[in-house]
UniProtKB/TrEMBL annotation:
Name of this chain's protein: Sigma-54-dependent Fis family transcriptional regulator
One Pfam entry name: Sigma54_activat
Keyword Secreted: no
Keywords: ATP-binding, Nucleotide-binding, Phosphoprotein, Transcription, Transcription regulation, Two-component regulatory system
TM spans (from-to): none
Example of a GO biological process term: phosphorelay signal transduction system
Domain Response regulatory: 5-121
Single GO term (MF): ATP binding
InterPro entries according to UniProt: AAA_lid_NorR, CheY-like_superfamily, Homeodomain-like_sf, HTH_Fis, P-loop_NTPase, Sig_transdc_resp-reg_receiver, Sigma_54_int, Sigma_54_int_dom_ATP-bd_1
Amino acid sequence: MKPGKLLIVDDEKDIRNLMQEIFAEEGYKVTTAANGVQAKQAWRESLPDIMFLDVWMPDVDGISLLKEMQQDAYLEHTKVIMMSGHGTIETAIEATKLGAYDFLEKPLSLAKLIVTAERAMENIRLNQENRQLKQKLPEQFLPIGKSKVMISLRETIERLSKFTMPVLIEGESGSGKHHLARALHKTSSRKDDAIVELSAYDFNRHLEQMQEAAILQQLRQADMGTLVIANIEQLSLDAQNILTNLIQNKQLQLDEQSISLDIRIIALSRGDLEWAVEHNKFREELYQRLKVMPIAIPALRQHTEDIPELLDYFTNHYVTHDALEYRHFSVPAQNILRQYAWPGNLKELQNLVQRILILGSGEITDEEIRSYLKEAQIDTNQMASIDTTVNLKEAKDRLEAAYLSQLLRETSGNVAETAKRSGIDRTNLYRKLKHLGIDPKNPI
């Protein structure tokens, strides 16, 4: 990109003249202003790409002017670089929060001035190219990546687009099951009708609280379209009966009502469905109907070669939809991300990209990624292990099962020692183990 237009706002004439001379020699078109009033007028007349703004001025301070111009939508296409001879970390942070691109301390380094302007112009160029590219691209809803597993997933979606049979999608939490379900809907003959997404927890709750109207409303909305049910293994037996009737007879049976509905069912599972069938918690007949065409989504750690393409996708998404500043992931940064285990899968990668774009500027380095992963590792692992899609009782049971299984492993299956260490009466402990399905001699 050729040098662009600059606006220099500073109450010191010598600094304005010096900066104007330097940047004019570099090929920039330069306008100057001595205070806030002049700055606004100059901005309207020149529409600069970059504005150097002094913090301390006689009529209004630079932070207040920045805030005012942001509120009035002056700076949508202008990068603001703050300058101060009495700069503090707090001032720099406040300016950054208000949208300033950078913060320079006086006395100004001439070399740093030029480099900062060049980086700002490069950032503007990248943002423009990104916006233009996204305007030309259709919405991306198919699985992203060039790995064999992603190519296979796209081929599977293409084959299934011709049919309307139920589909079972299995994969770890955060692996993209909902995204794949939407892709199946959008490539099918039902794409012009609604897709309704419902969790097993909500389905069960509506039935338990006798809210038939709520179920009827959502299923009617999905008529001729697609119904996606998350955590299918957690459906109550009553809900399973309703689903079975929908698949077999295209009928919704509620109380004495029988309503004809044509709905494609896409069931999502974390992979516990076969276990639920074996323990009589899920109907064998329904399971057989769903698994006619099962799709297994791989964990992100199984196709890390797709991470560069996924980084581009998530970056473009946040730049386009959330107006975040475009940043490029360096090759060393990408290599670190390809070596990471990704316990939270695609969702964790998406969260990383969003946070990196919000908190920084310029090219994303390997040092920045290492720092982020080091800080986020503990929280990420904890969050990846907590499933908020289940109700509190189920969450407590899972926590108790994990805790007691670990204690039994540590005590080599000694129930008396486990009872002592857990503070649970031995008789109650046996009841809990039976309820949770834990074999003391073989705790999984």
